[in-house]
Design brief:
332 residues; alpha/beta; Rossmann fold; seven-stranded parallel sheet; three-stranded mixed sheet; 12 strands; 42% helix; globular; binds nicotinamide-adenine-dinucleotide; binds 2'deoxy-thymidine-5'-diphospho-alpha-D-glucose
Length: 332
């Protein structure tokens, strides 16, 4: 199998590329990535010299860059490339519309021209917030942020290409991932690295928003299952089955760091902050997938990875991350 993976230098994409190459000697990956602030070739340093891995630097919105990647004749496209951080989508939505909508369209056109299977990596956020119960794949889309709205638009385009043009496309909607190589703007790596730096950890609002946490390796296994076995025109929810509110995650991280509640700083809430995400994943489980890691063990492993990889995250936190924060919030 030869995959065109887009956004492979990001967090989930890099974990996925490494998993695919490790799965079978015949597997090959072409990675098309623009290398935005979130794309880091170091995430794939261990496979950079593998002859089965090819890197193409380019933008998924640029049809000629997509064609350059297609010249490697992949069997399928897996689209991870996106702007992904909700707070950044509130500060400046434009890039989200470009990449998450126009970029998806450009890739769908390539899938259509070349007759390729296409897996769109989407998110549980497209369903919006749910007070009780869980979303199935049939639940209506009700996104709340420019990020989730742009992802929902991408999903709808995918479904339209199945119906109108017969493209063999499908969608995976994952819950909150965590694990190694996650950019330290997201809750878990931000809090771990702040604690390691002796900084406070900023909890939004009352800290009672609920997310369903999935270890990135479990998500990648689910994505591979959906890619191989899912039906065109269908969406598949991939949740970890670990619903926790942000204070519960905060306390677990404080315990791992051996620190107390005095490190917590309650800050203004995120505008439009979804209260709870919850996925019914029966459809993906029926394909034979199940998350294999417990939240506690995976959190411990993740914490330890950040302890041992300051050389990975310190340059980010003193570079792009710091510039972004100072420009938008005036303080770090
Ligand atoms: P990330 O922000 O870590 O990485 C995004 C990658 O996409 C980077 O390598 C970046 O350089 C690349 N990219 C961005 N714009 C591009 C463009 N125009 N052309 C080419 N490459 C571009 O992202 P992530 O957290 O790994 O998320 C990957 C995918 O999974 C996204 O589609 C996201 O919506 C989805 N998702 C993420 C989570 C999560 O918890 N992180 C959960 C559910 C779904
Ligand atoms: O649910 C899947 C989504 O998970 C993905 O589609 C997104 O790409 C990914 O960014 C993530 O979105 P969230 O907004 O849920 O993740 P984030 O890590 O930004 O925030 C998780 C929760 O923690 C959320 O309720 C907001 C809160 N939070 C976040 C940050 C960064 C804080 O309380 N303080 C913070 O500093």
């Amino acid at each position: 199998m030869k995959l065109l993976v887009t956004g492979g230098c990001g967090f989930i994409g890099s974990n996925f590329v490494k998993m695919i190459l490790a799965m079978a000697p015949a597997n090959q990956v072409v990675n098309l990535d623009k290398l935005t602030y979130a794309g880091n070739p170091e995430n794939l340093a261990e496979v950079a010299g593998d002859p089965r891995y090819t890197f193409v630097r380019g933008d998924i919105c640029d049809a000629s860059a997509v064609e350059e990647a297609m010249a490697h004749r992949p069997d399928a496209i897996v689209n991870f490339a996106a702007e992904t951080h909700v707070d950044r989508s509130i500060d400046s939505p434009g890039e989200f519309i470009e990449t998450d909508v126009r970029g998806t369209y450009t890739l769908l056109e390539a899938a259509r021209r070349h007759g390729l299977r296409f897996l769109q990596i989407s998110t549980d956020e497209v369903y919006g917030s749910i007070e009780e119960g869980s979303f199935t794949e049939e639940s209506p889309l009700a996104p709340a942020s420019p990020y989730s709205a742009s992802k929902a638009a991408g999903d709808l385009l995918v479904l339209s290409y199945v119906k109108t043009f017969g493209v063999e496309a499908l969608i995976a909607r994952s819950s909150n991932n965590f694990g190694l190589h996650q950019y330290p703007e997201k809750l878990i790596p931000l809090f771990i690295t702040n604690l390691l730096e002796g900084r406070k950890i900023p909890v939004y609002g009352d800290g009672l928003n609920v997310r369903d946490w999935i270890y990135v390796r479990d998500n990648c296994a689910g994505l591979e299952t959906v890619l191989r076995q899912g039906k065109a025109g269908e969406a598949y929810n991939l949740g970890g089955g670990n619903e926790r509110n942000n204070l519960e995650i905060t306390r677990a991280l404080l315990a791992l760091a051996g620190k107390g509640e005095e490190c917590v700083e309650y800050v203004s809430d995120r505008p439009g902050h979804d209260r709870r995400y919850s996925l019914d994943c029966a459809k993906a489980r029926a394909l034979g997938w199940d998350p294999a890691h417990s939240l506690e063990e995976a959190l411990q492993e993740t914490y330890q990875w950040y302890v041992e990889h300051r050389d990975w995250w310190q340059p980010i936190k003193s570079g792009e991350f710091k510039r972004y924060y100072l420009a938008h919030y005036g303080d770090l």
